[in-house]
Every structure is written in C-alpha cells, then in structure tokens.
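ugh ok fine here u go
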Amino acid sequence: MDIALKHRSRFVLASTSEVYGDPLEHPQRETYWGNVNTVGIRSVYDESKRFAEALVTAFRRFRGLPTGIVRIFNTYGPRMRPDDGRAVPTFIAQALATKPLTVRGDGTQTRSFCYIDDLVAGLLAFAESDEPGPVNMGNPAETTVRDLAGLIVELCGAGRRVTYSPLGADDPKRRRPDITLAPALLGWEPRIDLRTGLTRTIEYFRDNPPAGPSATRRPQGPTRDSV
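structure:
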C-alpha cells in the first residue's frame, strides 16, 4: 500500500468469504460482521484476512489511498492444483483416478461455486471502478458438498463411491453470497452454471493428468474453502 500511495495507484485487496466464519446470517451480506473463532484451528487464515481488510480501510481513511475490497467466494476452474485440498480439484482427481470421493462430514454443508472466467470479469470490473467495497463476488447458486460430489461422478462417467470422514473444527455449515451490490455497482453477475464450469474443468484435468501419488491425497488440517 505504501508503493500504491507513492505511485497514486488504486489498491485492490482480494479478501475472502472466510471473513464471515461459520455464519449465523444466510446468505451473507457485506454488512455482516461474521462469526469467527479467533483462537480456533482456522483462525490464522480467517483473522489474517479480517486484519488485511482493517489495514486497507485504515489506509483509505487516514492516508487517502484509493482502495477496494473484494470478498471472493469459492472459485474453481482449469489449472487448479489437484492436491491443494479444495473440493472441486480433489473430487475430480479422485473420480478420474477411479478412487472413492472423500467428503468431510455428512456432505450437507453447502458452498457456492463460481467459475474462474466469471470471477476474473468481476475483478476487472471492480478494479476499474472507484468502489471501496467490500463487495461480495461469487455465484449465489448454492449446492451441498454431497451433491457436488455426485455431479462430478456423473460428469466423469462410470460409478464412483463416496466416502465420508469427520468434519473439521469450525467448518462453515452454509456458504452463499448475497451479490446484490455487484450487479448494482459494477453491472456484473456470474453467467456460467456449475454443470458447464465443471465440464470444462474436468476436460482440463483429463488433458493434463496429475503425476504422482500426491495428486489425490487430501492434506491434513483445514483448507481455504473448508471442504
């Protein structure tokens, strides 16, 4: 931000839906302050993003830096790493390797998945605006993790088993953005539905198969989108 101030540039923070924690409000609006365990297993990531928002806001308020805050909800698409721990690449890699899909909890927890092309268009529109934010950016179409696994099995073809493991501590039970502000302020809204986006992502994974045993291994501990 000091560099942006020196060059009179706009600074945009890529924040996250994780600032809402395990929300008591649904869907989540930008005015919601969140429900975060400050000393929980996920707190390092959650609180670092919340602090970043506070820092950006302070620079804007006290030093006149033109800033913007975007709260990004779950995003997916081609070029994801198969071993990064997030639901979409993990499930696709497992399905293509004919391995069981590993779902944490009973799979009824929900997420809202935004295709990467939509998100990039939204970020560019926001960066080119003067809006300070925060502005939610994601796809408000909500789906359960269990249904996500089922759809990936269907799109990959052939039968695949789904196995279940304990849900992580402080894992959000529901996640869906209220994106009322984004269309009103930026003229932006997502256009690519989950089935279409997953089909494109699966095609990429088929054309670029992961190498090595780590490709379908789930990391231990919490992950960014808490699957």
